[in-house]
Design brief:
The complex is a heterodimer.
Chain A: E1 2-7, E2 10-15, E3 26-31, E4 36-47, H1 53-59, E5 69-73, H2 79-86, E6 89-100, E7 103-105, E8 118-121, H3 124-131, E9 138-143, E10 149-153, E11 162-165, H4 172-185, E12 189-194, E13 217-220, E14 228-229, H5 235-245, H6 250-266, H7 271-279, H8 285-301, E15 304-305, H9 313-324, E16 326-331, H10 337-356, E17 363-368, H11 376-383, H12 385-389, E18 391-397, H13 405-410, E19 413-416, H14 422-428, H15 436-443, E20 450-455, E21 463-467
Parallel strand pairs in A: 11-18, 11-19, 12-16, 12-17, 13-16, 14-15, 17-18
Antiparallel strand pairs in A: 1-2, 2-6, 3-4, 3-8, 4-6, 6-7, 9-10, 9-21, 19-20, 20-21
Helix pairs in contact in A: 5-6, 5-10, 6-7, 6-8, 7-8, 14-15
Chain B: H1 24-38, E1 44-47, E2 53-54, E3 62-63, E4 66-67, E5 72-73, E6 83-96, E7 99-112, E8 115-129, H2 133-144, H3 148-153, H4 163-182, E9 187-191, E10 195-196, H5 203-215, E11 219-224, E12 230-231, E13 234-235, E14 247-252, E15 255-256, E16 261-262, E17 264-270, E18 278-283, H6 288-301, E19 304-305, E20 308-309, H7 310-319, H8 323-336, E21 340-342, H9 347-352
Parallel strand pairs in B: 1-21, 6-9, 9-11
Antiparallel strand pairs in B: 1-6, 2-6, 3-15, 4-14, 5-14, 6-7, 7-8, 10-16, 11-18, 12-13, 14-17, 17-18, 19-20
């Protein structure tokens, strides 16, 4: 390999056919005289612009498009040299760091010698060692191209905002499960908004046996084993549900607050009494109607109860997980959009309440297709306020345009699977920790289950990994009409 | 007529060459190539700054032309006839302290039953110096020129600068000889004229080639891409005759200065629509009827683009060196013979900056 050109932070390297280099590989350009080296990553492999190549190709097809038949008497065996030159490749590489005496810096203000520098492949484990990504809480994501394990440290997910994205069936949920299980293994508290019931068997192996984390996985299905006792509910949590999930107007909310406080004072905070209080309320009949419609929606959701024994599971699970680690799966599979919003509002309100009061240390929240249940104001809340309270979110989506730009800008880690559509990649490339060229070039060519890892977990050295297989019972499969006939 | 008869005796591959053919010239080319390159080992090697395809553009020393302005109309004959063509190319690929490294390649093309086939010889790479040029050229001449008289006549070796074209000419004559011995009842297309007597076209050898082709029932048609022959101050190929192509008209009254000999009758051929015409030399010893018949068969058997036969065009295309081949050959000699590539500054560029157009333009 030979250093050919540098423009901005792009280095062009000439590579020959006997040197196997692919997109995503890291190269080390060492300049012995200066004692420094550039670490670059291949973001595109092109044919080198060899003079005369067009003529060469044209003359091989002069016979009406058919290859002309013949024989070459080439006693000096020049032909392999011609092929060697013709197949020369140009590697477009992004400068990632400068190595000086085993220490890395992001500076690229120097230029190695074009004639004297040597270029060699930099194996991922060596790079990880140089980047010092290893810690005490390793999470093995999978294997790299050179069959080495890519390990990140769980502490680099701590306090971070993460995005897992990619088109359908590329392995996003699989990676989420892997991260969840390892976080739980390290005694972290994980809450999952499970839209399609994909995570409910996180504690089971593929042959339906209990795995090591079985006892740490708590599946809460709203209206079934997950209900809320009305009298234990904080008014502001319920008002959030009414205003944001059920769009209760301000005047009606004020009236509701009065009713609630009155009932609480009298110790009559039950569903029945709440209904009666609204019925007997001396207020504008429009306000009463508005309150009634919301009241019946709450009652019909089946999520609220007066029975104290029924409504303790969330807190119990959270406290249990807080002590020994655990995953609380909020199964939203068969929940209507309105009920889903009610549940999410409640859970988030509860988490903030517990975190604010330091009853919980921190929570890793995994939100699948969050745009389907997360209200507008929460997006900003999550990247600003909630992060400081100890709520660390990982968004999982196959529609990158549904995540707001400010989320991308603040994202610390991005786990990017394949996208074919360039617009999707455009959305992802708005992230501050990644350059658009790398995203578009590498992510567009990823095979299923291959993930481009970007951000702090890899110390800003983008790496491609084949996510390792997990022995977990698969859930959330698409129901098929022709399944039995094939 | 031997329309259905295969014109070339078949061999396991591509019907060429026949086992009885003397293949000593390529063998000698290889030996001399390797021998000369071994002498170049470990020398500094200056890449050629301007690649140029060498071709023989010696001005013909022929004067006085007259034309028979009555065109001879041509009608394509579709009788299946073998069409074969030969061309060679040479290029200087770099300089050493003692001389230069050149490459030579030749291509032979056949068109038979709608299909084109080729046989390419080379590239042969030579390290030519003032010291070895005589040895190299004479050795090849000895192998190639069978007639002792001819050999003595051309005892001197060409100048170093002429070596690439001369070496290519030697290979071309050998290829022409091979075709003249192997093709039967076909049409053999040469690149250039049938003018002999100049350094690389010995009259005796050319006569032998033409005799052989005639004996095998072939006709040689030599197309010149460029000519310096003029009539009334105009190039003969620029004279437009208000006549529908294909046609040809004869150029008469040519008086070559000795030792130059014209072995063919000279015509201007306009074979397709458009303003392209070429000088066409056809073996003098062939009757006018056979000449016309040969050209009509060529029209019926080959493709034409801009009045030029496809077989000959392919021969040229396949032997020409492309820039990446030149790089590959430089790579080959640098690797195999340890030539150290140096970058000698272009004095024109150095002295005159943007006004210096490079050494080849001096």
């Amino acid at each position: 390999m030979k250093l050919y050109k540098k423009e901005g932070n792009i280095v062009q390297i000439l590579s020959f056919p006997n040197e196997t280099v692919e997109k995503g590989d890291y190269l080390l350009i060492e300049d012995g005289d200066v004692g420094k080296a550039l670490i670059v990553q291949v973001i595109d492999v092109q044919f080198a612009n060899i003079p005369g190549i067009l003529e060469e190709l044209l003359r091989s097809l002069p016979d009406g498009g058919e290859l002309i038949q013949g024989e070459d008497f080439d006693p000096l065996e020049i032909a392999p040299h011609i092929t060697y030159i013709q197949d020369a490749r140009l590697l477009r590489c992004k400068i990632r760091a400068t190595m000086n005496n085993e220490s890395l810096s992001t500076s690229s203000s120097w230029l190695p010698s074009r004639s004297q520098s040597t270029i060699r492949m930099l194996p991922i484990p060596t790079l990880l060692k140089l980047a010092k990504t290893a810690g005490n809480l390793p999470i093995v994501l999978g294997g790299t191209k050179d069959s080495m394990l890519l390990t990140i440290d769980a502490s680099l997910l701590d306090g971070r905002l993460n995005i897992i994205t990619g088109k359908k069936e590329t392995g996003k949920s699989h990676l989420s499960k892997l991260l969840m299980l390892d976080l739980v293994r390290y005694e972290a508290t994980v809450v999952v908004f499970d839209l399609n019931g994909e995570y409910i068997s996180l504690g089971m192996t593929s042959d339906e046996k209990r795995n090591a984390q079985y006892n740490k996985v708590h599946v809460l299905t709203p209206s079934q084993n997950f209900k809320v006792v009305l009298k234990k509910l904080h008014l502001h949590v319920l008002l959030n549900v009414l205003i944001h999930a059920m769009h209760l107007p301000g005047t009606s909310a004020r009236e509701f607050r009065t009713i609630w406080r009155s009932l609480k004072r009298e110790g009559k905070l039950t569903l029945h009494e709440l209904g009666e209080a609204i019925r007997n309320c001396r207020c504008n009949h429009h306000v009463r109607d508005a309150l009634f419609s919301r009241y019946y929606a709450l009652v019909n959701s089946g999520f609220f109860t007066d029975n104290v024994a029924e409504g303790i599971l969330l807190e119990e699970s959270l406290f249990k997980a807080g002590k020994e680690g655990g995953a609380i799966i909020i199964n939203l599979r068969n929940t209507s959009p309105i009920d889903r919003q009610i549940v999410v509002e409640y859970v988030l309100g509860k988490l903030v309440e517990l975190l604010t009061s330091w009853k919980l240390k921190a929570v890793f929240l995994f939100a699948e297709e969050a745009h389907l249940y997360l209200r507008e104001t929460y997006w900003d809340d999550i990247v600003t306020r909630m992060r400081h309270l100890g709520l660390f979110t990982t968004f999982v989506t196959n529609q990158p345009n549904t995540i707001r730009e400010n989320i991308y800008r603040q994202a610390d880690n991005i786990f990017l699977f394949n996208f074919t559509n360039e617009h999707d990649l455009e959305d992802v490339s708005r992230a501050a920790r990644v350059d658009a060229e790398t995203v578009k070039s590498i992510a567009g060519d990823l095979s299923p289950h291959y993930c481009l890892v970007l951000g702090k977990v890899v110390k800003d050295f983008p790496m491609v990994v084949k996510v390792k297989a997990l022995d977990i019972k698969t859930m959330g499969e698409t129901r098929l009409f022709f399944k039995d006939t094939n | 007529m031997l329309i259905e008869q295969l014109a070339i005796t078949t061999t396991p591959k591509y019907s060429f060459p026949q086992p009885t053919i003397d293949t000593s010239l390529p063998q000698r080319f290889i030996e001399l190539s390797i021998h000369s390159l071994k002498h170049a080992q470990n020398q500094p090697f200056q890449l050629n700054q301007q690649f140029f395809q060498q071709n023989n553009n010696l001005k013909e020393q022929i004067q006085t032309t007259r034309t028979e302005l009555q065109p001879i109309p041509l009608k394509p004959r579709l009788e299946e006839t073998m069409v074969a063509a030969v061309d060679t190319s040479s290029i200087k690929i770099g300089e050493t302290t003692k001389g230069m490294v050149i490459a030579v390649r030749g291509a032979t093309i056949w068109k038979h039953r709608r299909y084109y086939r080729y046989l390419r010889f080379g590239p042969f790479i030579f390290h030519v110096t003032e010291e070895n040029k005589k040895e190299v050229y004479s050795a090849l001449q000895r192998t190639y020129l069978t007639s002792p008289h001819e050999h003595n006549h051309h005892n001197g070796s060409p100048s170093l600068l002429q070596m690439p074209t001369r070496m290519a000419s030697l290979l071309e004559r050998w290829q022409q000889t091979m075709l003249s011995r192997t093709v039967t009842n076909g049409l053999i297309l040469f690149d250039g004229s049938l003018t002999s007597g100049i350094g690389d076209t010995p009259t005796q050898r050319m006569k032998e080639i033409l005799d052989n082709t005639r004996k095998k029932g072939n006709v040689v048609l030599a197309f010149s891409k460029m000519t310096s022959l003029r009539f009334n101050g105009y190039l003969i190929t620029d004279m437009l005759v208000n006549y529908k192509p294909p046609y040809l008209f004869k150029i008469t009254g040519l008086k070559p200065k000795p030792p130059i000999v014209l072995l063919g009758d000279v015509y201007v051929a306009r074979l397709t629509k458009g303003n392209y015409a070429f000088r066409l030399d056809i073996d003098k010893q062939v009757s006018i009827e056979r000449k016309i018949e040969a050209l009509e068969k060529l029209l019926g058997n080959d493709l034409f683009s801009q009045s030029y036969p496809e077989t000959l065009r392919l021969a040229h295309i396949l032997c020409t060196f492309t820039a990446n081949e030149v790089i590959a050959m430089q790579h080959f000699i640098a690797r195999k013979y340890d030539l150290k590539i140096i970058n000698r500054p272009d004095m024109h560029r150095l002295l005159f900056g943007p006004f210096g157009k490079g050494e080849s333009h001096s």
